[in-house]
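TICKET: design request
STATUS: open
ATTACHED STRUCTURE:
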């Protein structure tokens, strides 16, 4: 499954580039090349996030289907009044309900991560426009 890792939070990225002497130097995000590199990184993460969102959505559908199936089978196999059968079937299917709820939580987490990436991208785009304006005024 292509899910976003928990430690892959949106943080300033300091990419490295090789200088003419072979040593690595950091490109800070407040430099134009750093902003471009960070935007590329965010684009890559969004592409991964789209795949993770699809996987999470499929997992939600599967787990909800499994829950409904378990609930209905337990209801059909239970004895007693309708209320008793409903209560027993809900108890027997509670594990599947938990898995379905956890799948929804994972799906919502991926959606939140994509939203955070979108916000970070907009912020960097604004920063790059400000840099562009500043560079034009310095010329």
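STATUS: resolved
RESOLUTION: sequence designed for all positions
ATTACHED SEQUENCE:
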């Amino acid at each position: 499954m292509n899910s976003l890792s928990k430690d892959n939070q949106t943080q300033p990225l300091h990419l490295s580039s090789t200088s003419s002497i072979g040593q690595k130097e950091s490109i800070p995000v407040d430099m134009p090349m750093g902003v471009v590199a960070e935007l590329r990184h965010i684009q890559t993460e969004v592409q991964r996030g789209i795949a993770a969102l699809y996987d999470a959505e499929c997992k939600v559908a599967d787990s909800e289907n499994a829950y409904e199936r378990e609930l209905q089978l337990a209801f059909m196999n239970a004895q007693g009044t309708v209320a008793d059968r409903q209560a027993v079937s809900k108890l027997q299917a509670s594990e599947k309900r938990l898995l379905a709820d956890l799948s929804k939580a994972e799906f919502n987490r991926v959606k939140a991560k994509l939203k955070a990436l979108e916000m970070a991208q907009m912020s960097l785009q604004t920063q790059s426009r400000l840099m562009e304006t500043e560079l034009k005024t310095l010329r």
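CLOSING REMARK: The chain has three helices and two strands. The chain has one domain: 15-23+31-49+58-129.
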